[in-house]
Structure to design on (297 residues):
């Protein structure tokens, strides 16, 4: 068996890059609103990707009464080594979850919601019907804009998109995460071309709905590879882009290979706009759903 240096370097714990000065998270003066939001989420037995994925912006978002709800449980069937979400055998679906989310959103006065989910490869539709029910409940009970950040629906791509298209969201998001060369390390079980096809297929069925995708940088990708991914996204109808810095959640996850300076993020932003993206949000702490309500304006 050949020695795989490419894979080994991502897990070499003897070499850890120090965080640069531009990776700074501001803590709020008060945690009152944060604790209240956490209490309401716990009370309704709901999950947020903000907590499960150890998002660096959690204190800011919770303090502003915004959160990205993670449906279909908090255990993922994939084992992506960059992600802090639990892996294993998923729990039984909570069919009251759409109602609980709708009631929670109403209580918090949220006007823009992002719904995402773990991968549910155990389900024939990948969870598409549950996404649909959440959208329907939110539309019926709230005046709200809805963005969904979906998995790749590996087993039922077209069928799942057909289901969601019955009641489409205001923004459809699916992240490519990184460049195709690194998929076997970063997104095992995923397929770059199929993810592009998913975005393209949704856009063809829902031409008026903005499509969005994002990458996390700092995992060994090159500038040439990043720009090619951006061109691939544009050629598949994607108009909204997010680029952020990958941050290692724990010692058990992939290591950061490089910290990208803010100036480089600005250059990618300019390149994206020149390619025809309507919106591009690029920066060290940018995340797919960070300030999502501002991204659509």
């Amino acid at each position: 068996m050949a020695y795989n240096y490419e894979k080994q370097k991502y897990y070499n714990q003897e070499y850890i890059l120090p965080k640069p000065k531009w990776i700074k998270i501001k803590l709020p003066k008060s945690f009152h609103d944060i604790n209240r939001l956490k209490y309401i989420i716990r009370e309704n037995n709901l999950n947020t990707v903000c907590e499960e994925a150890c998002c660096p912006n959690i204190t800011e978002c919770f303090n502003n009464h915004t959160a990205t709800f993670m449906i279909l449980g908090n255990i993922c069937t994939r084992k992506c080594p960059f992600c802090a979400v639990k892996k294993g055998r998923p729990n039984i679906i909570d069919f009251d979850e759409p109602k609980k989310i709708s009631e929670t959103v109403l209580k918090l006065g949220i006007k823009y919601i992002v719904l995402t989910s773990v991968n549910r490869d155990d389900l024939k539709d990948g969870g598409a019907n549950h996404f649909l029910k959440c959208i329907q409940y939110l539309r019926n009970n709230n005046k709200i804009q809805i963005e969904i950040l979906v998995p790749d629906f590996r087993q039922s791509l077209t069928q799942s998109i057909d289901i969601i298209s019955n009641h489409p969201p205001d923004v459809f998001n699916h992240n490519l995460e990184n460049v195709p060369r690194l998929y076997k390390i970063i997104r095992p079980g995923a397929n770059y071309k199929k993810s592009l096809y998913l975005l393209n297929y949704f856009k063809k069925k829902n031409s008026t709905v903005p499509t969005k995708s994002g990458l996390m940088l700092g995992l060994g990708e090159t500038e040439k590879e990043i720009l090619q991914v951006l061109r691939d996204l544009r050629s598949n109808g994607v108009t909204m882009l997010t680029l952020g810095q990958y941050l290692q959640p724990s010692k058990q996850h992939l290591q950061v290979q490089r910290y990208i300076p803010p100036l480089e993020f600005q250059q990618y932003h300019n390149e994206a706009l020149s390619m025809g993206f309507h919106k591009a949000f690029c920066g060290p702490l940018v995340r797919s759903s960070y300030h999502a309500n501002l991204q659509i304006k």
